[in-house]
Amino acid sequence: MVDDAQGRVLAQGRAGARGAGRGGLLAVVCPGLQPAPLHLSSGAVAAGDVVTLSAPAAACRLDLGPGATYRLTFTNPAGDWPVGTVRPERDGRFSVAVTVPAGVVTGGAMIQVGGAPSYCPPNASCVGYAIVLRVR
């Protein structure tokens, strides 16, 4: 768990090491999709506000293909709202504007990022991470 008042990452997966790269360097490869921690332009929002959700390049080699897509969902005690999709770069970085849905209630909330089905084998646990924020 994290401190939602700080708007830090709620959960994220683990990166694993696999093999050695050229010159004896260890090549770190992510099992499934394991992006870098999320960032939000504001940790306190109201309905209708637009915030920027972003993530830097992952610490491990994601090597995402051109069809990779993340699904964004805004979750609040009042409900869940799909708020868009974003196509990350091959290294996992992205930046996208998200509009806070009408109908949210005051209190805790999160923006969840769901992974691309084409990179998630059936019955596997793929990317599923979120950032918390507060609705004022």
Short description:
With 136 residues, the chain is mainly beta. It has strands at residues 9-11, 16-20, 26-29, 39-40, 44-45, 50-55, 70-76, 79-86, 94-99, 107-114, 128-135.
Based on the model shown, name its key terms.
single chain; Immunoglobulin-like; 11 strands; 0% helix; elongated; 136 residues; disordered N terminus; six-stranded mixed β-sheet; three-stranded antiparallel β-sheet; mainly beta
Description of the structure:
With 136 residues, the protein is mainly β. It has one domain (4-135): Immunoglobulin-like. 0% of the residues lie in helices and 43% in strands. It contains no helices and 11 strands. The chain has strands at residues 9-11, 16-20, 26-29, 39-40, 44-45, 50-55, 70-76, 79-86, 94-99, 107-114, 128-135. The strands form 3 sheets. Strands 1, 5, 7, 8, 10 and 11 form a 6-stranded mixed beta sheet that branches. Strands 4-6-9 form a 3-stranded antiparallel beta sheet, with no helix packed on it. A two-stranded antiparallel ribbon has the order 2-3. The protein is elongated, with a radius of gyration of 16 Å.
